[in-house]
Each structure stands twice: as structure tokens, then as C-alpha cells.
Design brief:
828 residues; alpha+beta; Calcium-transporting ATPase, cytoplasmic transduction domain A; Calcium-transporting ATPase, transmembrane domain; Rossmann fold; eight-stranded antiparallel β-sheet; eight-stranded mixed β-sheet; elongated
């Protein structure tokens, strides 16, 4: 009886709504994006104050207070939705294909076209896209398929599935082949129920997100405390309620809600940039995570080399004749169910008619061999094909020398052996790995060549320039892996290799030491790969793992960043954070640079937001201390949160440099914000005290706003320098030579915007601004100029360090960047 549906039946079921029509988009919906940009604590507080201002009749103030928040929400939602659409389009390129039996023939279709009742072919490396029951294996040869359900259960042990057993969507076939019938499709499948919503958006907090979140939470507490004190003061002084509400609006605006928004925008920009270069970012914050990576682990096949494996030669052993070896080898490979590149290379080079095996043991990366038993005129007994050290553990010295000779040429080597014993299907255990026959006799060795990826030497050199350590972790022969690694640019003197067989004999401490002292690992099992990643992480490294096979899934999940090739197995693509479209290995350095760009952009934005927050908060405290009116009105505050901070933040994110930051965000921000914000507050306080007029408070506030705006606009330019840059400038001319013309242009553009506001009477009146006289203009310029000169001297001569750090030593002030990268090594 034929298994599967006819094309007509499948089409009718698709029309009846029985298709696998789950929402497979890779990113959030427009509604989710809008809500996440709208519902953060600062926006909720500000909009609450807007409602109170409306109740007390202050419509203009309500508009100004809520306007900036509304504009930020609109811009942030637009930016992220634009990126979402781009990512969704790219995600279609890597949507898994499924092989089904229709009209009695196998057909490859999109997973969305699978319908209820489809017969699905489930082979090693495939992921189940719907739930169903196994109806067929090959009871005469491989009576089971071994399945990895770790993505569903967390257990990494393989589970044997025979006819009648259930296959769950989200699981992977690792060994063997089966056919199962689709019983639950679309949103009814196990994986869809388990991961509803999680597939589209994973709220994994990166170091940058965590640091920004800490800053915002601290400032929320500060704003709440100031608001309470302000309320108590106003109640004691019997200040009108609407004036208290306006003051509280200014205090709450100290919370830099735009910082969280800018992270979203920075991630979106980075993801779109990388997508344009050939990489699909499946987790938006993975681009930023790349900037923290200082160890990159990679497989050999599919990463250093292309996925092309070329047959090289047969090397008979003992009394085996070459012609006989060709016949037996070709017959074996075409008669078994092996479907991998090695088998394809052998089948193309050694064509022979197929024979029916009695039993078959598929290849497993854990045991590194496959086998089959035959009882025909051509083949009799059990034949084993696999890694020489596994198949021939007691090989002769001549054989060892031959394998070493071939491996040193960069060739992969397999051994082929035969036993007169016959293995039956019932002899293959369900709950443990099958054992090799005890009387195997070698037939010969088979050598294959790999093709190095184009420009692989340049790509690896780029990683080293960025001080990213490299590890090659492969299941192939260690000599072969080492030879190819050296061809790719690894150093034979320092990059030493070791085999998984040697690692297996070591104690736990010895294993750890071997990982620390070796660079190239061959004959590594999937469990050893995972353990190597664990050790590197325990040593404090931020690890990226790149692979393309099912045996890489465990280590990809363990690494902080998982990278997969588009042509790799469906399993690796599904668990990876980043997928390299077209297998473009050379795009990775650009991806690392994008992560650094995000960090640098957020560093600039944090300096803008927090410098403004610090000087404004201190001025509010000062005003309360001296008993003056509030230093800013909500409308003044709108100018100070938009022109020098809110609008420039988007441009600085876009212009950010792709260089390794010297220090972490909190330290770089602290070194800039505390001196700049504190000194600016002191300079502004002089202007406020000497120009404060109780009879014309609005004019006094206007003068303070103009001076604050001047300092804030200068921060746009100054934020582009690192703390240590000030030590390198011996003259004023050398400082000017390092200015970024784009930042200067942005500063001028924002200043022109302010002049337009001042020139238009209606706009000037709306923002409660007044025109200063000549003496007041000189006072403002003098205050801002004094701040600029003062902050340059403070940074140049370590004034804050001498005051705050006991036994300060200037020679220790510089700090190398994470991984030791040179900050001045600008990337394109």
C-alpha cells in the first residue's frame, strides 16, 4: 500500500485549512513593537503627568511634556518595524524545506505547504516541522531513527524511534531515516505550543542592555526621590498645585527613557546593515553580543573549507587488490542509506550496482563509523567504514605512517574493514551504541581532499587583528585538521593540535589544561565540543561557536553566540543566533565590527543623556537649597531634551565607529559624565545666581536654558573623544585636527534650529524664551567658554582622579581595550 497523499488530496486539505499555517515570522508584530516602545516606566510616568496637566488646564505644558515621548515612540516604532520587514524577507531564504511522499514519489516542499496526513521523510540532520507517528523505517536494515529532543526537553541523550512512536516538532533526526505521518500541524503542533511567542522574540539581556537598565533604574529612583522632596517643599510653601505638577514634569524628564529606545534603534540598524552584507540576525541583540567575543571556535568542514569533499585515492592494505577494493567500496557505499558529502563523493568516483543489505548501522558522529551486513555473491559479512583509529584501533606501524603521511598533506582519511560475522537487525540495540565486530580485517584506506574557502587567510588575519583568539574543533583526523589549519594561516609553531582520543584519556584537570594550551582539536565528539566551550566560558572568555552540522548543535547552544552556515543542517540554523547566507564566512569580520559600532554609538548617546541629567538634577537641588524658583519650565526642558540630546542621538547611532571600545560602558560614561556634568552645573549656577530675578523668573530661566543648550551642543562634539585622547594633544591645533566634521555639522544644525525658534515670535513665546541683551549674551558665552576650557584642563591633567583616587598614579591611567585591540585601528 502506497504511503502518503496524492497531490489532489494535499491541495484539498490545504484549502480546508489543514495546512501547516503557523506564523513563522522571525520577528515581532507591529503591535508588539509599538507596545514595547510605549510601555516603559518613564513613558508611563510622563504621560501620567500629561493627564494631570490637562486636568489642571495647562494644555500647552501637557503638549510639550508628552510631545517628546510621543515623537520618540513613533520614530522608534518606525525604525524597528522597518528592520522587522527586512528581516522577515530575509528569513524566507532560510525557511526549512521538507521532503514528503506525494503520488508515491518524494517531493521537496516549503514547510508551510505540509498538510494533515502528509507522509514526511525524516533523515539525519532534518528537523521535524509537525507532530506525527512513525509508520516506516527499514525493518530489514535500520529498524529505527535516533532523535535529538534536547530543544524540547533539555536532555541531550538520543531517543530511538520505531514504527508507532511519536515524532515531536522541534526534534532532530541524528542517525537513521524514517517516514512519519503528519498528525498535528500549524499552531496545534508541540513546538508551536511550547514556543508560542518565544520564537519571534527572545528577551535575552546582553551586557549593554543590563548596564543601560541599571542606569535607568537608578535615575528612576533619583527622580522619584526628588519629586517627593519637591512635593514636600511646595506643600510647606503652599505653592499652587499646577506649578508643582509642572516642576514634577521637569524632574521626571530627568529619566533618560530615550536610552532604552536607542538600544532598540541601534540593534535594528546593526541587523539591517549585516543583512545587507549577507548574514541573517535571528536575535536582534546578537550583533552587540559579537562585540564582546574574544574567542571564536569553528569547525573545519563548512567553515575553513567549503562543503565540497573530493575523492582522492584508494590505498589497499594487506592482500587487497586495487580493482577489488574499488568494486567492494563502490558497491558498499551505493547500497547503504548514507546521504552525506563523503558518500556522494565515493558514489560519483566508484559507480557500482546496489546490493540489498541484511542490516545497516548508520554513521554517528559519536562513534565515528557506519556499517552494514551483506549476504550476496558480491559482498559477504559485515563491512565497516569510519575513522581509522576507531575502525582499526590496533593498526600496524606502516598503516599509522601511511595515515600520518596522508593527513600531513591535508587529506581526510577513512578506513574500510570487513568481518565474516553477520549482523541481524535484531542485534542492533535500542538503548546503547552498537559494538564493532571483534575480528575486523582491514581492506584499505580512502583519502579525500577539502577545498579551502576563498580568502580564508585574510578573514582569519582580520580576526587576529581584532585580538579574537581562534580555535578549530573538528571531528576529522587531527593531523588533517592541523594541516588544513596551517594552510589557512594558523602558526605551526604556536597553534598545537590534540585529538579527542587523547582528551578522553585525561583527567578533568588535564582536559582543562589541554583546552587552554591547544588551538586545533581533531576527532572531537559532540560532547567534547560542548565541554571545550564550557571550559572557555569558565575561564572568562566570551565565546562564539560556528558550525554547520548536527554534531555542532550542542556547542552552538552553549556558546554566547552561535553562528551557522546557510547550507548547514537545519538543526544548526535553527539554534544559531546568526546565519551566514550563501555561506559567506568573510562577512563575519563585518558582523564583529557592527557589534563594536553599537557599543560606541550607545557610549556617545549615554554621554549625551547622562550629562544633561546630571547638570539638570544638580541645578534643581541648588535651586531648592538657595530658595529660588525652579530653574527650568517644562517648555524649556523640551528644548533641552530634543535639540542637544534626542535628535542627535539618532545620528550618533548611525555614525558610530566600528572600533573596539577601550573600556566598558559604565566606566567610559562615568569618566566623561561626572566631570562634564558637574563642572557645567557649577558654571550654569554662577549664571543662575547672578542673573536670577524674582520679578522676571521666565527671563532668568531663558538665559539658563540658552547656556545649558550651548553646553549640551558642545557635548555632541566632545562625546566623540575617549578619556585618554586628551593626553595625546600637545597643542590646541592638534585637538582641532581630531574633530569629527559630521558632529560639528550636527551641532551647527541644532543651533540653527534653536535660532529659528528664537527668530519666530510665536515659537519663541510658546517655548517661553526671551531674547537676551548684549551683556547677557557675553555672560552666556563666557560661562560656556569657561566650562569648555575647564573640562579640557580637568581631563588633560587628571583633576578628578587626583581629587577622588587615593595614591593616584597617572602612568596607570590608560587601559587596553577588551582583547587588547588597538583603538586607532579604524575599520571601514
Amino acid at each position: 500500500m502506497a504511503i502518503g497523499l496524492t497531490s489532489a488530496e494535499a491541495a484539498q486539505r490545504l484549502r480546508d485549512g489543514q495546512g501547516n499555517n503557523a506564523d513563522l515570522r522571525s520577528s515581532r508584530s507591529l503591535q508588539d513593537i509599538f507596545i514595547s516602545n510605549f510601555l516603559n516606566i518613564a513613558n508611563v510616568i510622563l504621560l501620567g503627568i500629561v493627564m494631570v496637566l490637562l486636568i489642571v488646564g495647562s494644555v500647552g505644558d501637557a503638549f510639550v511634556t508628552g510631545g517628546v515621548v510621543v515623537v520618540n515612540i513613533i520614530i522608534g516604532t518606525f525604525q524597528e518595524y522597518r528592520s522587522k520587514r527586512k528581516l522577515d524577507q530575509i528569513a524566507l531564504l532560510t525557511r526549512p524545506k521538507v521532503t514528503v511522499l506525494r503520488d508515491g514519489k518524494p517531493q521537496e516542499i516549503d514547510q508551510a505547504a505540509v498538510v494533515l496526513g502528509d507522509a514526511i521523510v525524516f533523515q539525519a540532520g532534518d528537523q521535524a516541522v509537525v507532530d506525527g507517528a512513525v509508520v516506516q523505517t527499514d525493518p530489514e536494515t535500520v529498524p529505527r531513527v535516533d532523535v535529538d529532543e534536547s530543544l524540547l526537553t533539555g536532555e541531550s541523550d538520543l531517543i530511538a524511534k520505531r514504527p508507532g512512536d511519536e515524532i515531536l516538532s522541534g526534534s532532530f533526526a541524528v542517525v537513521g531515516e524514517a517516514v512519519y505521518i503528519a498528525e498535528k500541524v500549524g499552531n496545534d503542533s508541540f513546538a508551536q505550543k511550547l514556543t508560542a511567542g518565544a520564537r519571534e522574540y527572545t528577551n535575552f539581556v546582553t551586557p549593554l542592555q543590563e548596564q543601560i537598565s541599571i542606569i535607568v533604574r537608578v535615575l528612576v529612583v533619583l527622580a522619584v526621590a526628588l519629586s517627593i522632596l519637591l512635593g514636600l517643599r511646595d506643600a510647606f510653601n503652599e505653592q499652587p498645585f499646577n506649578e508643582s505638577i509642572e516642576d514634577m514634569a521637569v524632574v521626571v524628564s530627568l529619566i533618560p527613557q530615550g536610552l532604552l529606545l536607542m538600544i532598540t534603534v541601534a540593534y535594528a540598524l546593526g541587523a539591517v546593515r549585516i543583512a545587507g552584507k549577507g548574514a541573517l540576525v535571528q536575535k536582534s541583540n546578537a550583533v552587540e553580543s559579537l562585540s564582546n567575543v574574544n574567542v571564536l571556535c569553528m569547525d573545519k568542514t563548512g567553515t575553513l573549507t567549503t562543503n565540497r569533499i573530493l575523492f582522492d585515492a584508494l590505498h589497499p592494505m594487506g592482500n587487497t587488490e586495487l580493482d577489488s577494493f574499488k568494486t567492494v567500496m563502490g558497491t558498499y557505499i551505493v547500497s547503504t542509506g548514507a546521504k552525506n558529502r563523503t558518500a556522494e563523493a565515493l558514489a560519483d568516483a566508484l559507480p557500482q550496482p546496489a546490493q540489498k543489505p541484511v542490516a545497516e548501522i548508520p554513521f554517528s558522529s559519536a562513534r565515528k563509523w557506519s556499517g552494514a551486513s551483506f549476504d550476496t555473491d558480491m559482498l559477504k559479512g559485515t563491512y565497516i567504514l569510519g575513522a581509522p583509529e576507531m575502525v582499526l584501533p590496533e593498526m600496524s606501524i606502516d598503516t599509522q605512517d601511511k595515515i600520518t603521511e596522508l593527513a600531513n598533506q591535508g587529506l581526510r582519511v577513512l578506513a574500510f574493514a570487513q568481518s565474516p560475522q553477520m549482523t541481524q537487525p535484531e542485534d542492533i540495540p535500542d538503548d546503547q551504541e552498537p559494538a564493532l565486530p571483534s575480528d575486523l580485517a582491514p581492506i584499505g584506506l580512502i583519502s579525500f581532499s577539502d577545498e579551502l574557502r576563498p580568502n580564508v587567510q585574510d578573514v582569519l588575519a582580520g580576526f587576529r587583528t581584532a585580538n579574537i583568539q581562534l580555535r578549530v574543533i573538528s571531528g576529522d583526523n587531527p593531523e588533517t585538521v592541523a594541516a588544513l589549519a596551517y594552510q589557512a594561516g594558523f602558526d605551526p609553531e604556536t597553534d598545537k593540535g590534540i585529538s579527542g582520543v587523547e582528551l578522553a584519556t585525561l583527567t578533568d584537570a588535564g582536559f582543562v589544561e589541554a583546552v587552554r594550551t591547544h588551538t586545533i582539536f581533531g576527532r572531537i565528539t559532540p560532547e567534547q565540543k560542548q565541554r571545550i566551550v564550557d571550559i572557555l566560558r569558565d575561564d572568562g572568555y566570551y565565546v562564539a561557536m560556528m558550525g554547520d552540522g548536527v554534531n555542532d548543535v550542542l556547542s552552538l547552544k552553549k556558546a554566547q553566540v552561535g553562528i551557522a552556515m546557510e547550507d548547514g543542517s537545519q538543526a544548526t540554523r535553527s539554534v544559531a543566533d546568526i546565519v551566514l547566507l550563501g555561506n559567506r564566512f568573510e562577512v563575519l569580520p563585518d558582523a564583529f565590527i557592527e557589534g563594536q559600532r553599537i557599543l560606541n554609538g550607545m557610549n556617545d548617546n549615554t554621554r549625551l543623556f547622562l550629562t544633561r541629567t546630571l547638570y539638570a538634577a544638580l541645578l534643581i537641588v541648588l535651586a531648592g537649597f538657595i530658595g529660588s524658583e525652579f530653574p527650568y519650565s517644562p517648555r524649556h526642558n523640551a528644548l533641552l531634551t530634543s535639540l542637544p540630546v534626542g535628535i542627535p542621538a539618532f545620528f550618533l547611532s548611525y555614525w558610530a565607529r566600528g572600533v573596539q571600545p577601550k573600556k566598558n560602558l559604565l566606566r567610559m560614561t562615568t569618566e566623561f559624565v561626572f566631570p562634564a556634568g558637574t563642572l557645567l552645573m557649577l558654571c550654569l549656577s554662577v549664571l543662575w545666581i547672578f542673573n536670577y530675578d524674582e520679578q522676571d523668573v521666565m527671563h532668568s530661566q531663558s538665559l539658563l536654558t540658552i547656556a545649558s543648550l550651548g553646553g549640551g551642543l558642545l557635548v555632541i562634539v566632545l562625546a566623540g573623544f575617549d578619556r585618554d585622547d586628551w593626553y595625546q594633544w600637545d597643542t590646541l591645533q592638534s585637538a582641532f585636527q581630531n574633530l569629527d566634521p559630521r558632529r560639528i555639522g550636527l551641532m551647527i544644525a541644532m543651533f540653527i534650529g534653536f535660532l529659528i525658534v528664537m527668530a519666530i515670535e510665536g515659537a519663541r513665546d510658546f517655548f517661553e524664551m526671551t531674547i537676551p541683551n548684549t551683556n547677557e549674551v557675553f555672560a552666556i558665552v563666557g560661562v560656556v567658554g569657561a566650562w569648555l576650557v575647564g573640562i579640557a584642563l580637568i581631563w588633560r591633567f587628571d583633576v578628578f582622579e587626583w581629587l577622588l583616587i587615593p595614591n593616584y598614579r597617572p602612568e596607570l591611567r590608560s587601559e587596553q581595550p577588551a582583547g587588547g585591540a588597538d583603538r586607532d585601528a579604524e575599520h571601514p
